[in-house]
């Protein structure tokens, strides 16, 4: 099974990019973030014509997440991250697909830091950590995929010294990501590419793409019961160079079939 994540940065404005990528990459599952569209504006018909069933949770102008599955409809298991009933931001969606629980997440950016937005980010991370612990206790195959808005290590950013005070790279968020992996979650991309500079985001400004001044913000965390099936992982970097594309490139993993 091939599972991908793609911060599309506006699902309607980038729809030609999305459809072109789906045809070319043909993932079995695609997690999308930053739809920037209310529920009624989600391009369901176009995505269905491309061969994908979809569930989504939109939000006008901001946020929004979706899960696409090739040739089938994802079975919704959760809408919204538990832990705060008053949180109205569309940032977490979960579905069961072919025996795997797939969580699609769009973690808050948190800038400027310190400040209220960074405080919200830290609270969201704590809610994710608590829920991730509950998922591990179930001992089932789980993939948590999406835009984490966290740069885990110096290897994941083109010039670490320039990002020390940014909400994406502050010690609090890096420690939180590290804690998830120490609890048992497996960082798929880094597991298969331990020493490679892999980026998934290049800003539109300051010729970041041309200079390859990138960041690794999009991650897959795998539960132990599915991590042993990880066979390949990578980034569809050329997509970032397409016309009118997102500032993210899709990342993907491949899982071998379950034994038995």
From TrEMBL:
The record, for InterPro entries, names: AP_endonuc_1, Endo/exonu/phosph_ase_sf, Endo/exonuclease/phosphatase, ExoIII-like
Q: Does the keyword Repeat apply?
A: no
Q: Which GO terms describe its molecular function?
A: double-stranded DNA 3'-5' DNA exonuclease activity
| E.C. number(s) listed in UniProt | 3.1.11.2
Q: Which residues form the Endonuclease/exonuclease/phosphatase domain?
A: 4-248
- Taxonomically, the superkingdom here is Bacteria
The record's listing under CDD domains reads: ExoIII-like_AP-endo (cd09086)
**Which SUPFAM superfamilies does this UniProt record tie to the protein?**
DNase I-like (SSF56219)
Protein's UniProt name: Exodeoxyribonuclease-3
Q: Which organism is it from?
A: Kaistia defluvii
């Amino acid at each position: 099974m091939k599972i991908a994540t793609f911060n599309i940065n506006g699902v309607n404005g980038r729809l030609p990019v999305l459809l072109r990528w789906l045809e070319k990459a043909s993932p079995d599952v695609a997690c999308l973030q930053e739809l920037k569209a209310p529920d009624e504006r989600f391009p369901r018909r176009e995505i269905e014509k491309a061969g994908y069933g979809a569930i989504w949770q939109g939000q006008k102008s901001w946020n929004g997440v979706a899960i696409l599955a090739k040739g089938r409809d994802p079975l919704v298991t959760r809408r919204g991250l538990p832990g705060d009933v008053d949180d109205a931001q569309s940032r977490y969606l979960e579905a069961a697909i072919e025996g795997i629980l797939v969580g699609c997440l769009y973690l808050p950016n948190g800038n400027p830091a310190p400040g209220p937005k960074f405080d919200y980010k830290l609270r969201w991370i704590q809610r994710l950590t608590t829920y991730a612990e509950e998922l591990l206790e179930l001992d089932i195959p789980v993939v948590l995929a999406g835009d984490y808005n966290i740069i885990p290590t110096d290897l994941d950013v083109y010039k670490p010294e320039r990002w020390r005070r940014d909400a994406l790279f502050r010690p609090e968020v890096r420690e939180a990501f590290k804690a998830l992996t120490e609890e048992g979650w497996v960082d798929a991309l880094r597991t298969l590419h331990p020493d490679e500079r892999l980026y998934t985001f290049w800003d539109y400004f300051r010729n970041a793409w041309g200079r390859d001044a990138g960041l690794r913000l999009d991650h897959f965390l795998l539960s132990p019961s599915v991590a042993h099936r990880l066979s390949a992982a990578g980034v569809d970097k050329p997509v970032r160079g397409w016309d009118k594309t997102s500032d993210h490139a899709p990342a993907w993993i491949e899982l071998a079939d379950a034994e038995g």
